[in-house]
Structure formats: structure tokens, C-alpha cells
């Protein structure tokens, strides 16, 4: 398909995304980022309402992403924030969603036997230094040591070549596909096929599941 037309279709009618599933037996096969003494990852205390807002403001220089992260941490208490520093300066973060009930995030449903990494972000001053790889691995390490019996679900847009290449380098396990069906940009339905099982989720009306 012609790139310009493909983008119009993706934004307005149909978006394809790839689903990656990681279980505890996959953890030893994940690629460990190259050791870098300049990079340090830390699990933050999200209950510290004086410290966290300032930390996020230092890291996230995108207003929309900052709002999304704050919304997750405010509305979903059962989440973990991992920060990264570079040469002692705050540089990035990632959120680990740990559902205690079925939830909807990023137009997909997640259940209490799953974990989802959300809003990986590296400050524009510190990109292309390997920080995102260290954050991803720190999130996987946290999951493996605290919730190994859950499955980590990751979703990457089919047009996001950089993230798909990163997933390949990390040795992510491909699990299936997700399609967002739209009508002129409005999401109507999320259709997922993992391990041969189809799941349909209506998005244009109210749902009993908590939306994050």
C-alpha cells in the first residue's frame, strides 16, 4: 500500500498492532542490556505525593504523556513506577500495570493474570543512549521477581518500525495481532487474536471494565 494512503487508513479506519507475550520461561532468553555505569534504574514510591510530581515533571517534556502517566498513577493505585537516571540526572521512566481486576488500557482488556508495561518515556536530552532498553529490562526484572506467574502483554503498532526492531533485539515472544477498527478516527472495536483465540471488545459504548 502507498505510505500516505496507508497512514490515512491506519488513523481513520483500521490499525494493526502486534501482541507480544512473555511468560516466566521466556525471561532467561531476554537480552540483557549492555552494562553502563551511567544508567541506574530505581523503583519509586508512588505514594509520595510531594516527590513524584516533581520527578515526572523533570523527566517528561511531553504534556500529553505527562498527563497520561499522572492519570494512570492517580486512578490505578496498583501500579509501579520505575525511573532511570543518567549520570545522576533523572532521564526516563516506565509504568508497570498490575491489574487486580479486568481493566481496559490502550484499547485492550487486561486481566489479573497479566502485567502490562505502559508509558515508557525518555527525556529528549537523553535519547539514543540505551536508557529505554535498561528501563524495559528493569520492568521485566520487577515482574519476574514479584509476579512471575503472570504473563507480560506488550503491544506495538505495526507501523512503529523502531519499537518492533527493539522487540526483536530484546527477543520478545510474538503472541498474536490486534486490530483497532475505527470510523473516521473514532475507535469502535478492538479485535485480538492470540494463540488462535479471538477476542472482541466494543469501545464505542460503556463497559463494566475499568478504563485506565
Automatic annotation (TrEMBL):
N-acetyltransferase domain boundaries: 77-142
- Record-linked InterPro entries: Acyl_CoA_acyltransferase, GNAT_dom
Name the domain of life this protein comes from. Answer: Archaea
Question: Pfam families annotated for this entry?
Answer: Acetyltransf_1
Spell out the molecular function terms from Gene Ontology: acyltransferase activity, transferring groups other than amino-acyl groups
Report what the protein is called.
Answer: N-acetyltransferase domain-containing protein
Q: What is the lineage of its organism?
A: Archaea, Methanobacteriati, Methanobacteriota, Stenosarchaea group, Methanomicrobia
Amino acid at each position: 500500500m502507498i505510505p500516505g494512503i496507508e497512514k490515512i487508513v491506519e488513523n481513520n479506519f483500521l490499525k494493526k498492532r502486534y501482541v507480544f507475550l512473555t511468560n516466566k520461561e521466556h525471561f532467561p532468553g531476554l537480552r540483557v542490556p549492555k552494562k553502563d555505569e551511567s544508567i541506574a534504574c530505581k523503583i519509586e514510591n508512588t505514594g509520595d505525593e510531594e516527590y513524584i510530581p516533581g520527578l515526572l515533571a523533570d523527566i517528561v517534556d511531553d504534556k500529553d504523556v505527562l498527563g497520561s502517566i499522572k492519570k494512570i498513577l492517580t486512578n490505578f493505585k496498583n501500579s509501579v513506577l520505575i525511573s532511570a537516571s543518567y549520570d545522576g540526572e533523572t532521564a526516563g521512566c516506565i509504568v508497570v500495570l498490575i491489574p487486580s481486576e479486568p481493566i481496559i488500557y490502550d484499547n485492550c482488556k487486561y486481566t489479573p493474570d497479566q502485567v502490562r508495561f505502559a508509558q515508557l518515556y525518555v527525556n529528549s536530552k537523553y535519547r539514543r543512549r540505551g536508557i529505554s532498553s535498561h528501563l524495559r529490562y528493569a520492568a521485566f526484572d520487577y515482574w519476574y521477581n514479584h509476579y512471575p506467574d503472570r504473563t507480560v502483554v506488550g503491544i506495538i503498532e505495526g507501523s512503529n518500525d523502531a519499537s518492533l526492531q527493539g522487540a526483536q533485539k530484546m527477543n520478545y515472544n510474538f503472541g498474536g495481532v490486534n486490530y483497532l477498527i475505527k470510523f473516521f478516527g473514532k475507535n469502535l472495536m478492538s479485535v485480538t487474536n492470540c494463540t488462535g483465540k479471538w477476542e472482541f471488545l466494543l469501545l464505542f459504548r460503556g463497559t463494566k471494565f475499568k478504563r485506565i
